[in-house]
Automatic annotation (TrEMBL):
GO terms for cellular component: Golgi cisterna membrane. InterPro entries: Glyco_tran_10_C (IPR055270), Glyco_tran_10_N (IPR031481), Glyco_trans_10 (IPR001503), GT10-like_C_sf (IPR038577). Belongs to the glycosyltransferase 10 family. Homodimer. Its main location: Golgi. It comes from Bagarius yarrelli. This is Fucosyltransferase. It is found in: Golgi apparatus, Golgi stack membrane; Golgi apparatus, trans-Golgi network membrane. It is a single-pass type II membrane protein. Pathway: Protein modification; protein glycosylation; Glycolipid biosynthesis. Residues 215-388 form the Fucosyltransferase C-terminal domain. Residues 94-200 form the Fucosyltransferase N-terminal domain. Its EC number is 2.4.1.-.
């Protein structure tokens, strides 16, 4: 704006000079001063128009040169500014995400955002001295309860986003009334969260994926459980179902501890796996489901209604307990599939076109939150977290 104003002022000055020059030319023609101070070619009074034209040409040429020079300088400055802006966007200006506390103590590296999710320009830190310069702060729900007093006293910079992260169901998450209106964004397994990160995804198969083959099976039904509660619906259903069909059960309750390595061996060897959730909530189906789908085992699910599952996974990839009136009826169906290979193999038809992938806890939430904050600069407050999540 200043450059345009300067050019306008310069035009007025030149116009004034032009009138003075022309007046001087006329004056010079009629009064013939002894000393020539103007370089216009004067012939006689009758040819004073020559001076006027020469003056006009002279001024016009110098005016154009001045204006062109001014515009050129303005353009160069503007180009330099644009280059600096572009350079800052490319080389610096990372979106800084402060990890208030590492989720369950699990640390992750921001360098994984690009190869894993195609997200560039993120910087993670747990150094709270960088709080004021952080674009976002990620809070894991289970890890802030012991530090809540410090959190509530911390003033938030106007453009900073506070992100509430939680992957547990409401039954397994401590409710805090003081959390209402405290956060700007949510990252959660629920589809209606701001930064949606489910426990897994069904993606189109790529050329790099190997053709799927059903793994060898030597077990009919399996269940690996760590959180045993006799009042859980899943425990009651398991107890009834085990009366009608043999179930290979693992976990502390059964004195059959399963390591990570054993888990990778056991799961594919089962024809059916009981992907029973510990609580029933919309969109809440966990790694139990996606791990089964990924390794080639048919999940038998206990969770939200079938319609909710079918929003995220193929309808012929799983068996829902609600499709059967009783556990005994389900047991009879599983026995039938055990003796009918063509019918059993139909549960893997979807693998011709798709693959299952589990989400990466913590790092995916941080990377996708970084991307969201980078692309959404506007004002945002999440109103009434307790009502939204706990109801």
């Amino acid at each position: 704006m200043e450059s345009k104003t300067s050019v306008g002022s310069f035009q007025h000055v030149l116009l004034l000079l032009f009138l003075l020059f022309c007046f001087g030319g006329v004056f010079y023609t009629y009064y013939k001063p002894a000393m020539s101070w103007l370089s216009c070619p004067i012939v006689s009074a009758s040819t004073h128009k020559i001076c006027t034209d020469e003056c006009l040409n002279f001024l016009t040429e110098n005016y154009n040169q001045s204006v062109n020079s001014t515009v050129l300088n303005y353009t160069k400055v503007n180009q330099q500014q644009q280059q600096l802006i572009t350079k800052a966007a490319v080389t610096g200006a990372n979106t800084i995400i402060l990890i208030w506390r590492w989720p369950f103590g699990y640390k992750f590296d921001d360098k994984a955002c690009s190869p894993k999710f195609g997200i560039e320009g993120c910087q993670f830190t747990d150094n709270r001295s960088q709080y004021d310069e952080a674009h976002g702060v990620l809070f894991h729900h289970r890890d802030i309860t012991t530090d809540l007093e410090t959190l509530l006293k911390r003033p938030r910079p106007p453009h900073q986003k506070w992100v509430w992260m939680n992957m547990e169901s409401p039954d397994n998450s401590g409710r805090q009334t003081v959390l209402n209106d405290l956060f700007n964004l949510t990252t959660n397994y629920r589809r209606d969260s701001d930064v949606w990160v489910p426990y897994g995804r069904i993606l189109s198969a790529s050329e790099e994926d190997k053709p799927f083959k059903i793994p060898p099976k030597d077990k009919l039904v399996c269940w690996i459980v760590s959180n045993w509660n006799p009042y859980f619906r899943r425990v009651k259903y398991f107890t009834e179902l085990s009366r009608y069909i043999k179930i290979e059960a693992y976990g502390r309750h059964f004195n059959r501890y399963v390591s990570n390595e054993n888990y990778k061996t056991i799961l594919p060897s089962c024809k059916f796996y009981l992907a029973f959730e510990n609580s029933i909530y919309k969109d809440y189906f966990t790694e139990k489901l996606f791990n089964s789908l990924e390794v080639g085992t048919v999940p038998v699910v206990l969770g939200p209604p079938r319609e909710n599952y079918e929003e995220f996974i193929p309808p012929d990839s799983f068996i829902h307990i609600d499709d059967f009136k009783t556990p005994q009826e389900l047991a009879e169906h599983l026995k039938f599939l055990d003796t009918n290979s063509p019918m059993y193999e139909q549960y893997f038809n979807w693998r011709q076109h798709f693959t299952a992938h589990g989400s990466l806890f913590g790092i995916e939430h941080a990377c996708r939150s970084c991307e969201h904050i980078k692309n959404n600069k506007g004002f945002r407050v999440f109103k009434n977290l307790n009502k939204w999540f706990w109801g």
